[in-house]
Amino acid sequence: MTARVTVLGSGTSHGVPAIGCDCAVCRSNDPNDRRTRPSILIELPSSGDGRAYTRDVRSILVDTSTDLRNQALVHNVRRVDAILFTHTHADHVFGLDDVRRFNQMQKAPIPCYADRDTAGTLRQMFRYIFEQPEQRGGGLPQISLFHIAGPFTLGDVDIVPVRVMHGRLPVLGFRIGSFAYLTDCNHIPDESWPLLHGVRTVILDALRHRPHSTHFSVSEAIAVVQKLGAERAYFTHICHDLPHAETCAQLPRGIELAYDGLVLEIE
Ligand SMILES: [Zn+2]
Ligand SMILES: [Zn+2]
Ligand SMILES: [Zn+2]
């Protein structure tokens, strides 16, 4: 089965260009130097005999970035059947209110999957979603929050959560088939490596060249890709230190910077 991954956002939490910054990357005319907040969309082929199953999962969003509305408009995202959350940093969740539009179009709540801590923090951060409203205005996002305790299945695909460390914060990466999405991390614990065995395509955090306390640098990320033995790697969560074309030209074969709108076919 072939699925399609679209990088909706490849930028760090500030986005690129950063507000008020006059650096070369923030002033660049290269569209690949314009980076919204990190998120991907995974689209699966419609399952089975073409009947419209209510459980049919075709479109999985990873994180609801601050830029979700614009990302959906730019990349023509018309359907979200499930949402996977990596962690609750603002750049990964603050677009959650925008799922109201998918609720309207799909006439159904959207199942969301997060580990226990992330789910608990989401309930606190978005209290208005989970409590009875005092009055009904523009409507509330309708989501059903499920705890991830281990590998699970969505539609026809197996989702393998992969624990990675984002500084001291444990966050989730996700593996689907031979593809893994590992954003916001600077360490892969020993017990997670076997879960990544055989990954051929990876999207991996690489903030910038200089070291950072919670994100892989470019050289650290290259070392991870080499240890993993992945054929194709795309770096994400990129800040304004890295001009797209110039950086890509310096990266080893098979490794590139991701960019907003990058589409990958995965097995
Ligand atoms: Zn982030
Ligand atoms: Zn800048
Ligand atoms: Zn983060």
Structure notes:
With 267 residues, the chain is an alpha/beta fold. Helix content is 19%, strand content 27%. Strands 6-5-4-3-2-1-14 form a seven-stranded mixed β-sheet. It has a seven-stranded mixed β-sheet with strand order 7-8-9-10-11-12-13. Strand 12 (232-236), helix 7 (244-250) and strand 13 form a beta-alpha-beta unit. The protein is globular. It starts with a strand and ends with a strand. It binds zinc ion (3 copies). The site of one zinc ion (ZN) has 7 residues, from helix 2.
Write the layout of secondary structure elements.
Blueprint: E1 3-9, E2 39-43, E3 59-62, H1 68-74, E4 82-84, H2 90-93, H3 100-106, E5 110-114, H4 116-125, H5 127-130, E6 143-147, E7 152-154, E8 157-166, E9 169-176, E10 179-182, E11 201-205, H6 218-228, E12 232-236, H7 244-250, E13 255-257, E14 263-266
The structure holds zinc ion (3 copies).
Oligomer: single chain
Bound molecules: zinc ion
Mean pLDDT: 94
- The first-to-last residue Cα distance is 6 Å
Radius of gyration from the alpha-carbon trace, in angstroms: 18 Å
Question: Which range best describes the helical content: under 10%, 10-25%, 25-40%, 40-55%, 55-70% or over 70%?
Answer: 10-25%
Q: Sheet with the most strands? A: 7 strands, mixed
Strand order of the largest sheet: 6-5-4-3-2-1-14
Can you write the helix and strand succession as a string?
Answer: EEEHEHHEHHEEEEEEHEHEE
SS-based structural class? alpha/beta
CA-based shape? globular
Which stretches of 5+ consecutive residues score pLDDT under 50? 49-54
Q: What is the number of strand segments?
A: 14
Helical segment count: 7
Strand proportion? 25-35%
